């Protein structure tokens, strides 16, 4: 009798563990996710209006688009805030399902992860002090230029300025973990300018006096969600959901809430 009770208890335990495990059936839609029943988004919530912290929660364009994708897939959205340069590793390692942080599609990143269709266009701009001697982007590339440029580490601002300026001996790059840290360095006179996306740039300039954005743009780029190359079923599901949200105007409606036409 004791052996029978032990056997039944073990069987019940196994069934319980199977029911709670992270298997495709757990989500009810055949999808494997980092956390059963959830779509986990890795981000760096210091990039307004795409992602930022408000009332203790991550808000912004990317957060709302991810929530709409999760709803379509019958999943609950979970957002994990981390350093920007940790996002790709989180996605590759299966700790996150998608990476959304105003991420630009670049050849180097495409070697590490897959990208969904683009859902927004970004513009890299240059922030300087109002009394700066730098009046255009072209001056950063001029012969004999030797400016110190602040960027957020591993962003496209970092990638572009490294290739265009640092490697050509036209200046040096100071890399910071957050865009706000680069702005503080600019205010303190530690860097001559900051290269960053236009939307957070406008937010920083509005919050901090004595700064301005140069009229000429550095470069334009496409934003997309980064996903693991190993989970093709989830990639197809997310990409299809995103395409549908773009087609029915949901994505543009979200963007218009945060970015007004000028």
Describe the fold and architecture.
This protein has 262 residues and is α/β, with parallel strands linked by helices. The protein has helices spanning 2-20, 61-72, 87-92, 107-112, 156-166, 179-187, 198-207, 232-247, 250-258; strands at residues 38-43, 46-47, 51-54, 57-59, 76-81, 98-99, 114-115, 120-129, 147-152, 171-176, 193-197, 211-213, 219-223, 226-227. The strands form 4 sheets. Strands 8, 9, 10, 11, 12 and 13 form a 6-stranded mixed sheet that branches. Strands 5-1-6 form a 3-stranded parallel sheet. Strands 2-3-4 form a 3-stranded antiparallel sheet. Strand 2 and strand 3 (51-54) form a beta hairpin. Helix 2 runs antiparallel to helix 9. The radius of gyration is 22 Å and the shape is elongated. The protein starts with a helix and ends with a helix.
Write the layout of secondary structure elements.
Blueprint: H1 2-20, E1 38-43, E2 46-47, E3 51-54, E4 57-59, H2 61-72, E5 76-81, H3 87-92, E6 98-99, H4 107-112, E7 114-115, E8 120-129, E9 147-152, H5 156-166, E10 171-176, H6 179-187, E11 193-197, H7 198-207, E12 211-213, E13 219-223, E14 226-227, H8 232-247, H9 250-258
Parallel strand pairs: 1-5, 1-6, 9-10, 9-11
Antiparallel strand pairs: 2-3, 3-4, 7-14, 8-11, 8-12, 8-13
Helix pairs in contact: 2-8, 2-9
Distance between the termini: 79 Å
Overall geometry comes to elongated
User: What percent of residues adopt helix (DSSP H or I)?
Assistant: 25-40%
- Percentage of β-strand residues: 15-25%
Q: Summarize the helix and strand pattern as letters.
A: HEEEEHEHEHEEEHEHEHEEEHH
